[in-house]
Amino acid sequence: MILEEIIKRKSVRSYLDKEVEEAKIMEVIEAGRFAPSASNIQPWKFILTTDKDIRNELSIACNRQRFVAEAPVIITACVICRGYNMGGWYDSACLDIGIALDHMTLEAVHLGLGTCWIGAFSEERVKKILNIPGNIKVAALLTLGYPRDPSIIKKHRKPLEEILCREKYE
User: For 44, phi and psi rounded to 5 degrees?
Assistant: First the structure.
């Protein structure tokens, strides 16, 4: 049941020094590839990084967060085109990429792996390190690997009655 993976998912900031099998990496990427996007635009491109030197450089570009380099895999999510105009007021591209990354995080949990969304980064530095063209935007980075601590954490969420309305907004 997918709810189990949703409940188990957590932000992993400490990884084992263990390579992730290629087949597992590709399953995670496939989960993102099959994510829905508005009008099926698929406004994404993902850069898979396993090279230790590049991971170290990315760690520095990510506000010197050491665990970024510790993760054996980093997936950089790029916006390659405009998305769909949602509700007449926003472009869907970042939302679409967020859905794809979320699919990846859940598949990672299913495979016994951990992830962490990285939003604290210098886009300019990441683009330079990964040779990303100027017209392409970096949406986020995702670390991937075997968590040092596989325990499940208790999540603090608002109660359902605080976030759910029925029929009309109240």
Answer: -125, 155
Task: Report angle CA 3, 115, 117 to the nearest 5 degrees.
Answer: 100
Alpha helices in the chain (DSSP H): 2-8, 22-33, 52-61, 66-70, 93-110, 123-130, 160-163
* DSSP letter assigned to residue 169: -
- Alpha carbon distance 74, 51 (integer Å): 9
Backbone angles phi, psi at 28, to 5 degrees: -65, -45
Distance CA 105, CA 152 (A): 15
CATH class, 2-163 region: alpha beta
Q: Which of 60, 78, 79 is nearest to 69 (CA)?
A: 60
Rounded Cα distance, 165 and 3, in Å: 22
- 10-residue mean pLDDT series, the chain (170 residues): 92 97 98 98 98 98 98 98 96 98 98 98 98 98 96 92 96
Q: Is the pTM of this model over 0.85?
A: yes
Domain ranges of the chain: 2-163
| DSSP conformation class of 40 | G
